[in-house]
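Annotated sample (chain length 503).
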Amino acid sequence: MSHIIELTLTELTRAIASKEVSALDATQAALDRIAGQDGGETGVGAFLQVFTDKALADARAIDDRIASDGAEAVGPLAGAPVALKDNMCLSYGKTTCASRILEEYESPFTGTAAQRVLDAGGVVVGKTNLDEFAMGSSCEHSALGATRNPWDRSRVPGGSSGGSAAAVAARMVPLALGSDTGGSIRQPAALCGVVGCKPTYGRVSRWGLVAFASSLDQIGPFTTDVKSTALAMNVICGFDHLDSTSADVETPDFLVEIDTPIDGLRIGVPAQARSDQNHPDVTKSFEAAIEQYKALGATIVDIELPHLDYGIAAYYIVAPAEASSNLARYDGVRYGHRAEIEADEDLVALFSKTRAEGFGAEVQRRIMLGTFALSSGYYDAYYNTALKTRRKIKQDFDNAFSDANGGPGVDVVMTPSSPEPAFKHGAKSDDLLAMYLADIYTVTANLAGIGGISIPGGFAEEDGVSLPVGVQLFCPAFGETTLLRAARMYESATEWNRMAPAM
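Output written by the structure step:
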């Protein structure tokens, strides 16, 4: 069944629908791949939980439904193995957020995005690793063990959705969901050589996603190709009355014109995309992507995004401030880990001990940073200034996408996904600024609330190892149809997405 794991999501669902492959065979192939590649000291470590018995039972049930009613009656993901980042609530298994404070937490409900996957016939085979509470860029900050990059297991897969990216890159599943707060889908997608899409804020319901920064978080898919991303987007997008930030906008069929090139495509390239701080091979791949788009008939437009340089500074005020508020609920009283206290200790001692024991160093750091930024006397200097900067960044993108008042009117904006390929485990552990700068090209999409996608764009050479690098495209809010078509144009003309790590 090795050939099954090599199929893209669209290829696999087509094969299951035509009964060339059964849902049970597809699920068993995924489970065998996970068992053979994920565990042990040298395994990828993408999964925190694997639902072997439940997944096989679900697959058998789907095969029975296909036999009686046909695949169309089951749904567009009928029989496809899927992984969920372990900050998405599921009514079975555990929802840990890779944190000691939620290590034994069992959600009483399933979140909307996960439920839409199940309703579409997807078979959830497990929950994937992440940086604790999605706070990190390397998947080293998981309290339950680090994830390794399938291309070189001495290196990180990126983060925070490193487990989902690694699972797809290692061909354990053809689809995994992640969450993106400042690049947590697109950066690991680039480092693992897969496609990762962050939809427009509000395009996908956040109900059932454990909150990090509520005005920035968004769920999105990892796949091995853009057409499969479009299929996944068709499933998970749409209005949800359970989420007050869900946008009541129509969800188009992203597959209808996915293979139709965009005539006169205009691509905006900001000066910052060509930073001399980029790894040389990242710059080389980015320039090659520009030339490829030119060959496809696109027009490259040099644009100005003057506030792009302030993105990291604004993000690391806004996100920790929201995290400080969202994570206040973990107090040892309602649910999650509860510390043992002495008879003469009070409630404050319970809170303090519980949070000290339950939260890792990076989560504690961000809570303290956010609390400080929101504190009396510092609110205007830090938080309010960051919000004003966020507005300026959004205006920069709005101006780039508009042709009003002589604006460039570009269809998409293009940058590298990450300034460098995957780095060694521990290489940035003592340099937090260097770690945070790994998201320099991604945080602005979250601050502006727009859509973004990372697609495989080539390779960088490091210590004799070839490591994937990504090319990133941004679109205006709710412009994912154009975004996916533009990404597909490049993908159709290159071979990068067809390359997989030697496992």
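Annotation: The chain has 17 helices and eleven strands.
Annotation: The chain has a mean pLDDT of 96.
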